[in-house]
C-alpha cells in the first residue's frame, strides 16, 4: 500500500489507543444493564426471603472500572502524590527554612542542610519509596491481569487455556526476559547512534514494546505463544507504532523513573482495554521490522547454554529460530 497505507495504519493505531478511555464507561454501563436483566427483582427477593421490599438495591459497578479506579488511587493518589510532595514541597521548603535561619552561603547552613537532606533521603527511600515501589508493582500486576481478564471475558468470551502449566510458566518467564533485553537494546541504540537517529529508533522500539504490553493480555487469553505475538507486531509495525506512541510520550515527560512509572501505572489499564477492543490494520506494508530478532536469538542462546540442555531449552523458550520465522510469515 505504500506510504499512504503506512500513514493510515499509524493514525488508526494512534486513534485506537485512546478508545479505552471511552470504552470503559460503556463497559461499565452495559455490565450493569446485563446484571439487572439477569438479577431477580426486589419483589422476587422478598418472596424468596432474601431481602426486604423496602431495602434499596445498590448499583453494581463492573469489576473493570473498580480496578481502574483502584490503580489510579494507589499509583496517583498515594504513590505519585507522596513523591511530588517530598521532592517538590518538603525538600525545597526545608531548604528555604535553613536559608532563612542561617543565611544562604554560610558554612553552617551548607553542612547542616547537607547532612539533614542526606538523612531524609535515606529514610524516605528506605522506609517508603522502595517498599512502596515493590508493593505497588505486585498489586498492579494482579489488578492489570484482573482488568484484562474481565474486559476479555465481557467482550470476547472465555480465555483460551495454555496446554499445560509448565508451558504457561515458561512463556511468561521467556516473555519477561525478552522484554528486558529489548529495553536494553533500545537504550543501547539511543546511546550508540548519533542524535536524532538513535533517539528516533529508541522511541520506535519503545512504542512497539508498549504496544506489546497493551496487547499481550489479549493475545495471551487468545492462546498465542510469544513467537506469534512478536511476529504479529513486526509484521504490522505501522499500526503498533501509532498505538504505542501516546503511552510512550506520556511516560517520557519526566526524567524521574519513579514518576514515569507512576504515570505508566495510572494510564496502563486504559490502554489494556484499548488493546482488547482494537482491531489492528493488517495490510499496511509488506516490509517487516525485525527489531525483536536479535533479542530472541540472544534469549534462545542464553536459555540453551545457561539453564540446561537443548531439550529443556525447547520446552522453556517455546520458540526456535525456525518457528519464529514461520510465525512471522504466517501472520503477514
TrEMBL record:
<dbReference type="Pfam" id="PF07264">
    <property type="entry name" value="EI24"/>
</dbReference>
<keyword id="KW-1133">Transmembrane helix</keyword>
<feature type="transmembrane region" description="Helical">
    <location>
        <begin position="64"/>
        <end position="91"/>
    </location>
</feature>
<feature type="compositionally biased region" description="Basic residues">
    <location>
        <begin position="35"/>
        <end position="44"/>
    </location>
</feature>
<dbReference type="InterPro" id="IPR059112">
    <property type="entry name" value="CysZ/EI24"/>
</dbReference>
<dbReference type="GO" id="GO:0005783">
    <property type="term" value="C:endoplasmic reticulum"/>
</dbReference>
<dbReference type="GO" id="GO:0016236">
    <property type="term" value="P:macroautophagy"/>
</dbReference>
<feature type="transmembrane region" description="Helical">
    <location>
        <begin position="257"/>
        <end position="275"/>
    </location>
</feature>
<feature type="transmembrane region" description="Helical">
    <location>
        <begin position="287"/>
        <end position="307"/>
    </location>
</feature>
<dbReference type="GO" id="GO:0016020">
    <property type="term" value="C:membrane"/>
</dbReference>
<keyword id="KW-0472">Membrane</keyword>
<comment type="similarity">
    <text>Belongs to the EI24 family.</text>
</comment>
<keyword id="KW-0812">Transmembrane</keyword>
<feature type="transmembrane region" description="Helical">
    <location>
        <begin position="230"/>
        <end position="250"/>
    </location>
</feature>
<protein>
    <recommendedName>
        <fullName>Etoposide-induced protein 2.4-like protein</fullName>
    </recommendedName>
</protein>
<feature type="region of interest" description="Disordered">
    <location>
        <begin position="33"/>
        <end position="58"/>
    </location>
</feature>
<feature type="transmembrane region" description="Helical">
    <location>
        <begin position="191"/>
        <end position="210"/>
    </location>
</feature>
Amino acid at each position: 500500500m505504500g506510504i499512504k497505507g503506512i500513514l493510515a495504519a499509524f493514525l488508526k493505531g494512534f486513534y485506537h489507543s485512546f478508545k479505552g478511555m471511552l470504552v470503559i464507561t460503556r463497559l461499565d454501563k452495559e455490565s450493569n444493564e446485563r446484571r439487572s436483566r439477569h438479577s431477580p427483582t426486589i419483589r422476587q427477593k422478598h418472596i424468596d426471603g432474601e431481602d426486604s421490599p423496602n431495602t434499596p438495591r445498590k448499583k453494581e459497578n463492573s469489576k473493570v472500572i473498580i480496578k481502574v479506579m483502584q490503580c489510579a488511587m494507589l499509583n496517583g493518589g498515594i504513590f505519585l502524590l507522596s513523591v511530588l510532595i517530598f521532592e517538590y514541597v518538603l525538600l525545597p521548603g526545608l531548604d528555604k527554612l535553613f536559608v532563612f535561619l542561617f543565611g544562604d552561603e554560610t558554612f553552617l547552613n551548607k553542612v547542616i542542610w547537607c547532612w539533614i537532606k542526606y538523612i531524609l533521603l535515606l529514610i524516605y527511600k528506605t522506609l517508603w519509596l522502595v517498599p512502596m515501589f515493590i508493593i505497588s508493582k505486585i498489586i498492579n500486576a494482579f489488578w492489570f491481569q484482573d482488568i484484562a481478564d474481565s474486559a476479555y471475558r465481557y467482550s470476547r468470551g472465555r480465555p483460551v487455556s495454555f496446554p499445560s502449566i509448565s508451558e504457561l510458566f515458561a512463556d511468561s518467564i521467556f516473555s519477561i526476559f525478552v522484554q528486558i533485553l529489548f529495553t536494553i537494546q533500545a537504550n543501547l541504540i539511543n546511546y550508540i547512534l548519533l542524535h536524532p537517529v538513535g533517539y528516533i529508533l529508541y522511541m520506535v522500539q519503545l512504542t512497539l514494546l508498549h504496544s506489546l504490553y497493551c496487547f499481550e493480555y489479549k493475545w495471551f487469553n487468545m492462546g498465542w505463544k510469544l513467537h506469534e505475538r512478536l511476529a504479529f507486531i513486526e509484521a504490522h509495525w505501522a499500526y503498533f507504532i501509532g498505538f504505542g506512541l501516546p503511552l510512550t510520550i506520556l511516560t517520557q515527560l519526566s526524567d524521574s523513573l519513579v514518576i514515569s512509572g507512576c504515570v505508566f501505572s495510572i494510564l496502563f489499564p486504559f490502554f489494556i482495554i484499548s488493546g482488547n477492543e482494537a482491531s489492528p490494520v493488517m495490510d499496511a506494508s509488506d516490509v517487516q521490522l525485525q527489531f525483536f530478532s536479535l533479542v530472541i536469538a540472544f534469549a534462545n542462546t542464553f536459555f540453551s547454554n545457561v539453564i540446561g540442555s537443548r531439550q529443556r531449552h525447547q520446552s522453556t523458550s517455546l520458540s526456535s529460530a525456525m518457528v519464529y520465522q514461520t510465525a512471522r510469515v504466517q501472520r503477514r
